[in-house]
Amino acid sequence: MARHLRRHHNLLSVVVVVVSSCCCFGLLLQLPAAADALTNDEICKNGIPAGTQSTINTGEALTCDNNDIIHISGQLIVKSNTRVRAAGMFVDATGTLTIGTPEEPVRDVHIYLNHQPCDINSDACKRQGALWSEGTLDIHGTPKTPWTLLQTDAPAGSSTLQVSACDNWSVGDRVVVSATGGEGTRYTNTVYGDNADENFEAEQRTITAVDAGCVVTLDTPLRSRHRGSWLGGIVPTQAEVANLNRSVVITGPFHRANVERPIEGGQGITTRQHVRGVSRIDHARVENCGRLAVGEYCMHWHVLKSCPSCYVKNSVVEGGVNKGITIHGTHDALVQNNVVYDVRGASIFIEDGNEMNNVVDSNVLMCPSLSNPVALAHFTMDGTGKHLRGRRCALDGHQEHRNSDFDEQSGLYALSPSNHIIGNRISGHDNAMFVNHQGYGVWGIGNAARRVCVASMPFGRTERNVFHNNAGFGWYVNVAFPMDVDLTADGHVSDWNSCLPFNMATGADNAKSFVIKDHVEYFNDFSMGTYDLGDVTFENAISALNNKGAYWKTYRRGINSGPFAKNLTLVDNWSYLEAPGGSALVEFDGLRLVKLNSADNHIPRFVVNHHCGLPYEQTGGLCASHYLLKDVTTTNPGEAALAPTTFYSETSKSSALLLYNGGAQWLNGASNLDERGANLAFRAPDNCVISGYWGGWGNNEWMFCEGLDDVRIVRIYSPNRGTLQVTTAGDGSFEVPYGTSFYSEQKRQGSTRYAYTPWCSGSSYPIDCANYIWPSGYTFLVRGGSEISIAIPSQVDGPMSDLFTMEYSEPLMSPTSITVSVSGDPLLAGGPCLIESTHSRSFITPYGPLIPQSGAWFECNPWQARNDVHDFAEAFSLHLQYNGADCESANCDTTVTATGVTTTTTTQAPTTTISTTTTTTTMSTAAPLPQGVAACRVKSDASIDAIWDALNWVCTQVSSPCCDPVDTSVCGSCGDGPSMRLQAVANTAWCPMRLSEGHSCVTDGHSCDFGGTMAWSALGSDTCVTLPEPPPTMTTTTTTTTTTTTTTTTTTSTTTTTTTTTQAPTTTTSTTTTTTTQAPTADALTNDEICKNGIPAGTQSTINTGEALTCDNNDIIHISGQLIVKSNTRVRAAGMFVDATGTLTIGTPEEPVRDVHIYLNHQPCTDINSDACKRQGALWSEGTLDIHGTPKTPWTLLQTDAPAGSSTLQVSACDNWSVGDRVVVSATGGEGTRYTNAVYGDNADENFEAEQRTITAVDAGCVVTLDTPLRSRHRGSWLGGIVPTQAEVANLNRSVVITGPFHRANVERPIEGGQGITTRQHVRGVSRIDHARVENCGRLAVGEYCMHWHVLKSCPSCYVKNSVVEGGVNKGITIHGTHDALVQNNVVYDVRGASIFIEDGNEMNNVVDSNVLMCPSLSNPVALAHFTMDGTGKHLRGRRCALDGHQEHRNSDFDEQSGLYALSPSNHIIGNRISGHDNAMFVNHQGYGVWGIGNAARRVCVASMPLDARSATSFTTTPDLVGTSTWRSRWMST
């Protein structure tokens, strides 16, 4: 009774009664009502009320109607041998569902959750078919051995298994035996052999008998061998044997999305613990589960925060979709000894990125057959899963989680690595375990979005895991550099500075190293590996029978981290290692190389610098690491003991250095050798030879040097300074070219790998940016004790000219030193300096330094740099703001120290204010600086144009001020002062001034003119000073909606400390009313209010999933606040206008949308040039326009020839391509062998015809099946191995479609065009469009284009990417009076007029990159006899893409119709592919515009404009030449 009372003490009422048999008082305790107090019907309809208890006793059933959800507010107890059937079960915060306890587990309980197909995102649907708990959920079935190991080999044909444990296993139980490679002896004959299917197939059987010694008899013999013994006594190749039966079953119907394609999933049951309460599940089974929506998982802990009492143990999830077990926003819970089998998507999923300290222990995650068998010939490739093969555990259809479920389907997928992964066994998946960010969530997703730095999160314990028989990786991390991140109790970042690789105030290394212990991998492709990861140690790991023993690209090792590997064993891998590049010490402390198969004469390779130096990224840094192999032992039957492998480098002539067993060294690259073969750095011909097994690729030999144990690498991060001359005292000199082995000029700068360091915008590098990460420079070898001189041939004056970060040796290797002198560049010259191998590595990443004040040479010989930690901190603050980092609950203060100056920049959470202010502005004053040269700094939240305006004003006030060598008209003569530069990221200009007496850096006195706060200060000081005569006072009145950011700056010098709050200096005589407003919810405005009145400034409305906003035909939606459009929505209106304060958000880069349809209705206008007509059918923005659809491969290349009659295409990429998508294949000349027979032959029509088809199937290997065979041949191979004659294959579908009616001018002559919709960013604001489609567009008037940037001036944030323009007239994409924008990876197809048009002649520095501009058939076939000549376009030939009717642009659109037509050549045209047009690209002037046209008329000399604006030396930075005296004098010279 006591136990009973304790259990229900909160439910009891106490009544005092008199007991007649004694003289005392007693307590009569009224327990909750018995089970029979409520009928079944009452429970089904009304639930279990709070304070009551009902029991389903043994042998009973609770059966509800199909729509009844059992609501439990009290307690429902379910006993053994019972049945429950309902549409769902909901346990609220006061409720308890008890199906057994640990002390009294139940047997034979069956819960059936019935449900019908429904709108999967609706709340009503989510509760149907769900066991949803917000209270206490206790499920405890009868214990049994959940899984065990095979103890002896089970050969093919065997009907018995000897297993290590079998408690409570029974006849009739289903068991599954994991694959262990069948008879394969190495990865290649396992994957490509005759029995490849069986080698990777888990086999499910039913038990017919089990004895006391755990010999299990099966109903059907096994098809293939399953290993139960250790390979060679070294590798624990034992199959897992899992029991799939449990005594508690939670099930229901499963409604497939497509019965022919199980890979598309469907709708099953779900279980979840939601937000609160506790869930304890042990020995249960969940099946037929999961749905295609975020949160709709088989088993789900949803945002429970810390829940140390929560667990799921010894349970089974089988036959589900969209995750097996999900840990979401939950910490400290336990997932142990479970079996997840045959589930599509990730088996265990750690969702948002903030989850921490959960223990995932000893689970078996098994896919029945290999999940992603790309290029494995013996596997079914159609993706259906019908044959139990193909992409068996992949899920195609859940776009938000496509990375975890389809592209990189994984047994365990985690955004947060801060959990403990122990003793798990994973097989059959694409990847066993993958730590990644869903492809878009480096700042977290879901509830953790913008609250975590996923790629910097620390790792938990990883121990005793066994990953085998997976198609891709075993243990896999994409990009991560774990840091000692400051976290809240909920796993959110509490200080964003801690996400950086170094403490920016002290330079201390912030890495958080971790160890992977006792790890085993076999029969995987890539095995354990990563792209970029550092500060990890593999301890007592075994990698065997894999294609690659390990796979790595970039590695770094911090001063506090252990070796790369400790006691690593590599057994019979095809390649022992594909080891990382980088700039690091790659140390193997105990390495065992084993070759067991003596009959196999293959010698595994040991590869270094794997994928190092790839162009257009940062992989591998300078490709110059020290590889230290200690205590190497070999087992190699039939070969010499010293030669179990061959060393290779994937980078030609790098300075990689390999040290073997303490004495011998191999030097990667036979460069810098004299005629005797001696290395010029240390003259040792007798000690070094090109030798033996230490071979390489091409001339990339390894030089073996016996006994030279003091050779080390020198790495210098630098821009191109020409070839360095290095002289070694006593040995001579040698040349060190600039980065020839690693594509130095094509590297990426900034935050591509260290995602939380500041971004550097640009298309070619280096550029001026506060982040100096840029993996380019010089490397060479030198012996310890050497005296070397480095001669720099010339001084560099440009971006990163102050970068010369030198690293010598490694601080964790045996100590050595060298003496260095530098000459040539006066900024860097100095020495001699003694440089120790233990010199500081502060601020240096494997891709380069964060700041120029770094490295050994700066320590010895500091110089005046252009940027410092102060600038890095400011750029970091902007980076946080741009990415929306949560600064309300986390510290966004950026505190740094530089040359005695400490600066703190505080970013507060944005506050929306509405204010009216009248301001009188005067100048603040301070003492002037001495005469001489000083560097002044201007910072502004205004545009770059506004900064230029301010500089021009300064020039009128100061004699010999800032000067720009590109345009000496600004501020007159340059004198001998350095140049000025602009930094777009931080809107910053550094302005070195030549100061005359009484003048110094100035504070801007008219910042209100351009709407931004601005301050000038001396370098190293934030004290603003004034001119002798300040400018006139100005007054402005503004009514604005603003986001307020407070910046506090603290400056400390060695003698004085000044604390200044920097604001626009003002004296205010005004009345200011400030109202803080919160954005209303979406339902604050009705659809009719939005259509008629728009979105007022300061408000926000949302069109949610499944909704539609439909306006009358004449309504134009006016957006002054923010309109957010979610997935699966429709908008219909006569137009949309985003004014200067407005924002239209249709998806973001982090959360792209799907299935959004914008229909802009309009009627034919009589006056196409009237303002009223221009707004009809237009998406017109003067504010912020963000459109981001679901990513997909926009276009790709044909990989093999597609002959006439073919119905399939082999393409190189096909991400997110789907059945029903339309594709178009470009013409490649058909069977023509030269131009004449291609043009004049019998098949001339087809030879120049692109062919559009619809996809009927696409498989994992990107074989695309078409609905109709091709008419002509399309090439996919290189002609003679020389000419890349590969057809472009473009996908014309996108998830965001902007469309409307198209009214033809002449239905008989399409060449005359008509009136469609238009989109434009007009004069101001920013436009960011990605993965969208615009169709039925364009009109016959100047400015009425399909997509149009109109006179935005500099807009580095503007882009249109991965989008489609189809079926339009009068230009596809137009760049007009706009600079620094990006047009990338778009497809413009079947558009009349120029596909891309650069309009007036003053446009510059725009990047037009990798676009496909395709006309369906030859556009201007004059004199080609076999083409229709009438110009109608009726037959899809003739002048298909010509436009007859737009007179002002007749040259670009008709006479010389061109894919890309530009008046201004001063832009970057890169990687585009243009076909089918009259001209591919034409730089011309519309036949009349040699002085410019439109807004640039009489302001540019079109025929003299430079082809690359960066090379212009006689023009101002903007090509609009203004009418000043300088203009007139310089005009004569041009």
Write the layout of secondary structure elements.
Layout: H1 2-7, E1 13-18, E2 25-30, H2 40-46, E3 53-56, E4 61-63, E5 69-72, E6 75-78, E7 82-86, E8 88-91, E9 96-99, E10 109-113, H3 123-127, E11 130-133, E12 136-140, E13 147-149, E14 160-162, E15 174-177, H4 187-191, H5 196-199, E16 203-210, E17 215-218, E18 240-243, E19 248-251, E20 255-256, E21 266-267, E22 270-274, E23 278-282, E24 284-287, E25 299-306, E26 311-313, E27 316-318, E28 325-331, E29 334-336, E30 339-341, E31 348-350, E32 359-361, E33 364-366, H6 402-407, E34 410-414, E35 420-422, E36 425-427, E37 431-435, E38 462-463, E39 466-468, E40 473-480, E41 514-517, E42 520-522, E43 527-533, E44 536-539, E45 542-544, E46 550-551, E47 554-555, E48 565-571, E49 575-578, E50 581-582, E51 585-594, E52 605-608, E53 626-635, E54 646-649, E55 657-660, E56 664-668, E57 688-690, E58 702-705, E59 711-717, E60 724-728, E61 732-736, E62 777-783, E63 787-791, E64 805-808, E65 817-823, E66 830-836, E67 844-845, E68 848-849, H7 855-860, H8 869-882, E69 894-898, E70 901-905, E71 912-921, E72 932-940, ...
Parallel strand pairs: 3-6, 4-7, 5-8, 6-9, 7-10, 8-11, 9-12, 10-19, 11-22, 12-23, 19-24, 22-25, 23-26, 24-27, 25-28, 26-29, 27-30, 28-31, 29-32, 30-33, 31-34, 32-35, 33-36, 34-37, 35-38, 36-39, 37-40, 38-41, 39-42, 40-43, 41-44, 42-45, 43-46, 44-48, 45-48, 47-50, 48-51, 49-52, 51-53, 52-54, ...
Antiparallel strand pairs: 1-2, 13-18, 14-17, 15-16, 15-18, 16-17, 20-21, 55-56, 56-58, 57-58, 59-62, 59-64, 60-61, 60-63, 65-66, 67-68, 69-70, 71-76, 71-79, 71-80, 72-74, 72-75, 73-74, 77-78, 91-96, 92-95, 93-94, 93-96, 94-95, 98-99
